[in-house]
Amino acid sequence: MPIQSLHAPQERHPEPASAQLTPRRRSWFWWKIGGAVVLVLLVFIGLVGYRLLAAVNTTVDGNRRVSVLEQLGHIVAKRDAQLKGEGEDRINVLLLGIGGPGHEGPLLTDTIIVASFKPSSGQVTLISIPRDLAVEIPRYGIRKINNANAFGQELSYPGGGEQLTADIVARVTGLTMHYFGRIDFAGFTKIVDDLGGVTLTVERNFADREYPTEDFGYQTISFRAGQQMMDGDTALKFVRSRHGSNGEGSDFARSRRQQLVLQALREEIFSLGTIINPVRIGNILSSLGIHTRTNMEIWELLRLAKLLRESPTNSVTSHVIDSSPNGLLNVATGQDGAFLLVPRDGTFAAVRAFCANIFVVARYREEQARILVRDGSGRNGTAKTVATNLTSLGFSNVTVDQHRSNERMANSQLIDYTNGRKPYTLSGLASYLGLAGTGTGSPLLNPGLVPTILNGNDNVNRAVLPAQPPDTDILFVIGTDYQPALTAKRTSST
């Protein structure tokens, strides 16, 4: 009989399933385990993403609000599609700011800015339209442009008050408003806070003792010059202040501050910290869905963001349509005594010309051509008016010849003494003054090259050209044939 062990039998544990497998099957086993983990993670991420996308809305097709989720199929389908205006190398987006619920006049536009983008060069320009500009609003007559959004809501205008405002701005500027985006004060504040604030440089010290409070009273706010970080509430006060001291008490000064904050926001949004931070992006999207309205689809927003991110940060310029001495507007008083701004030339022709050529204004400034205007028409004040208009349209260093204003000339002459070294200025002047290819018969003379009459006549003898005045690159001699109204022809911006 076999002798039994006095020790307790040793417990045996089954080998792990993976150990019982051949190397090939063991690999397959771990692949399935890993795949299951990845699948769980994907489901979790998908659920979170679904909640986020379903919560975020953008307005398309008139007043219909559509979730982002509903548009995802469009992103793939339109991956290679172009934005409106991209084929013409100019995309215009109207940016509107309103008070929103809890503010006096919640639908009145506090901010009206045309953001114009030139994809081929990456140039971005911001054009501020003053809210006191007098315009024709359907069924309401001549009113301030900041009423258009509210009136559009009352009229149930197709596309809403934002689209009515966009249509009016298009008539004023001569530019097609391809898209619009509207945000209220609460949305602006939250987005700045979600970004962690914005860093910008305040140009000068100023204080405002009449800044509105939420209970419709007043409080005093102040800012010091220099670089600083602003949270949402501070940034909102900075862009809304209307009664600041030290030259910051006008709507025009406020428009410049608004443009400054927009540029700072652009840099922050496209910074690496924002791009790779999903929580921050989610918060921004949530804010946009609640507090904004736009007619851009998601694929259009993504494409525009991509194009803007690739543009140089120093390519942004800003302009304010204003009533300064060289501005395009004049101050007027409405029938009810209201403060209004009206076009200086009686129409919006000069404004349209300025906006059409906005991207070459920077070129004019780079060339710094010295322009002299000489009156040969015999009409008093014509030379001064022309010089003022040219300055307002972006030409710098424009002066009037006070010494030879009594000479008479039948034909206007634009004479270049630079040997073609100021091409953008010369081309722009010719377009603005109605000389180049407009059928006026006026000559564009270039003594540095071969002087040529643009209407097809033979070359002009150099001896008939006026001698070059001191400190002058380009001379414009106003003839009796000159028509004072500026043309809105678009010059080359390449």
CATH topology of the largest domain: Aminopeptidase
Report strand %.
Answer: 15-25%
Q: Helix segment count?
A: 14
Spatial arrangement of strands, main beta sheet: 13-8-3-4-5-14
Molecular structure report:
This protein is α/β, with parallel strands linked by helices. It has two domains: 86-322, 3-Layer(aba) Sandwich (Aminopeptidase); 363-478, Alpha-Beta Plaits (2-Layer Sandwich). It contains 14 helices and 21 strands. It has helices at residues 23-55, 68-77, 148-154, 160-173, 185-194, 232-240, 251-269, 272-275, 278-291, 298-310, 349-356, 358-367, 382-392, 423-432; strands spanning 57-59, 65-67, 91-98, 109-118, 123-128, 134-137, 141-144, 179-184, 198-202, 206-212, 218-223, 226-230, 292-294, 316-320, 329-333, 339-343, 371-375, 398-400, 413-416, 444-445, 474-478. Helix 5 packs antiparallel against helix 9 and helix 6 packs antiparallel against helix 7 (251-269). Mean pLDDT is 77; it is low at 1-14, 50-63, 436-442, 448-463 and 485-494.
Entry summary:
By secondary structure, this protein is of the alpha/beta class. It is built from 14 helices and 21 strands. Helix 5 (185-194) packs across helix 6, helix 5 packs antiparallel against helix 9 (278-291) and helix 6 runs antiparallel to helix 7 (251-269).
